[in-house]
Amino acid sequence: MPTIDSDAHVVESERTWDYMEKSDQKYRPAIVKPRGNSAAEYWFIDGKIRGLLRVVMTAQEMDEVARRTGRVMNTPQETREMENVPARLKHMDQLGIDVQVLYPTMFIERITDKPAWEVAICRGYNRWLADIHQQGQGRLRWICVLPLLDVGAAVEELKFCKQHGAVGVFMRGIEGNRMITDPYFYPLYDAMSQHDIAVGVHVGNGCPQNLDMVSQYNGGGSFWKFRIPVIGAFHSVIMSEIPKQFPKLRFHWAEAAANWVPYVVKDLQRRWATQKKDLPDNPLKEYRQYVSCQTDDDVDYVIKYAGEDNITIGTDYGHNDQSTEVEALGNLKKTGMINDRQYAKICYDNPKALFAL
């Protein structure tokens, strides 16, 4: 059976920005490191630190995580940074993965407040991924990043991305001072519907003020900063007019796990009943919402609320955080929570429909 990894990653490097036009090199992101022996590196854009590039973990540290959790995270630098596309494909073969859908890394946070910077950086990133797709023998599809500060420029850039293998548009649950249900994005949703391309709502947060607030006294790391906006945005989309106004638009809710689905669906049932509205029996299927699960989710229970046709799974390939499980697709089959038909849907049929592959 073919398999699709619905949430893998590329990790941007200095080489990524070689794809920026010569006239745009003045906007080129730079890498900075703190003084001392810190293993962390950051992106420096428009005079500000704009997010973590990487924290270098030793092989011993990754082995310790694998021992404690059973999750393999280690990936070669040349494959996660796409310096060697054939090696990436070979590793996919070893993992039993036929197709990966590639999400970005640095865009989990907002990269700039200036449209000109965003247009230039997004264009460079998308041309890098277009080249990766060309080398990928049809096995590396990707989620594009668009300059959402300028919807007109975003709609125009979308045309290039669709022509070069993109299957989705990267968005965060909060985009600047707007929710993704804001009518500001409607022209983009209309264009995405016409191009048969999905909305990829990945863990992240595009509101610097919100990030600063929830980062204070926060022992939970990225949970409140990056995961909660995904769940809140899902609820808002279902409650909004978007699913009916754009009846072809599909949403992917990525890397926030799926155990929250029953909780949100129950809340929607009560809320819609109070408003004397009829919630569909299966709102995910009715409104074309797809959620990526993790192997430690109670997937059989989630399916009772999400149905069999709207759950996918991803490896988070290229990262080394709590979501990463390079062998996730294979491990899901070993959990015993789902039958063979459900496994085939989660690992192939559902992502194929989601991304129109």
List keywords for this structure.
TIM Barrel, 8-stranded parallel beta sheet, 3-stranded antiparallel beta sheet, 13 strands, globular
Indicate the low-confidence ranges by residue numbers.
none
Broad shape: globular
**String of helices and strands:** EEEEHHHEHEHEEEHEHHHEHHEHEHH
Return the average pLDDT rounded to an integer.
Answer: 92
The name of the CATH topology is TIM Barrel
Number of helices: 14
What's the story with the biggest beta sheet? 8 strands, parallel
Spatial order of strands in the largest sheet? 1-5-6-7-10-11-12-13
Q: Could you name the CATH homologous superfamily? A: Metal-dependent hydrolases
* Annotated CATH architecture: Alpha-Beta Barrel
Q: Kindly provide the name of the CATH class.
A: Alpha Beta
**Percentage of helical residues?**
40-55%
Tally of structural domains: 1
Radius of gyration: 19 Å
Number of strands: 13
- Strand percentage lies at 15-25%
Distance between the termini: 15 Å
Q: Strand pairing plus helix content: what structural class?
A: alpha/beta
Which secondary structure elements does this structure contain, and how are they paired or packed?
Elements: E1 4-9, E2 30-32, E3 40-45, E4 48-55, H1 59-69, H2 77-80, H3 85-95, E5 99-103, H4 115-135, E6 140-144, H5 151-163, E7 166-171, E8 174-175, E9 178-179, H6 186-195, E10 198-202, H7 208-214, H8 222-239, H9 242-245, E11 251-254, H10 261-274, H11 283-286, E12 289-293, H12 299-306, E13 311-313, H13 328-334, H14 340-354
Parallel strand pairs: 1-5, 5-6, 6-7, 7-10, 10-11, 11-12, 12-13
Antiparallel strand pairs: 2-3, 3-4, 8-9
